Amino acid sequence: MDLSWIMPLLVSISVIVIALLVILSLFKAFYRKIDQGQALIVNDLSATPKVYFTGAMVLPVVHRSETMKVSVITLELNRTGKEG
């Protein structure tokens, strides 16, 4: 019985599994999640920036990202006299 086909099969399966693990680890490393009440602004190579409210992939060399508060901010103004 010839079992010489088992070793190339095991090597190819292990290469595929390792490649998937690398892709998943890169996704985990470069995904930025944003809290509620904030927006993620990603500047990439296009002319207009992209805005995300939940999270996005931010690649370190290609993208530049900033967070911005978008929640409602209450301001209390005291106006007295002529300005009242």
Automatic annotation (TrEMBL):
Keyword field contains Transmembrane helix: yes
UniProt superkingdom: Bacteria
Protein name per UniProt: ATP synthase F0 subunit 8
Segments crossing the lipid bilayer: 6-27
Organism in which the protein naturally occurs: Vreelandella olivaria
Keywords: Membrane, Transmembrane, Transmembrane helix
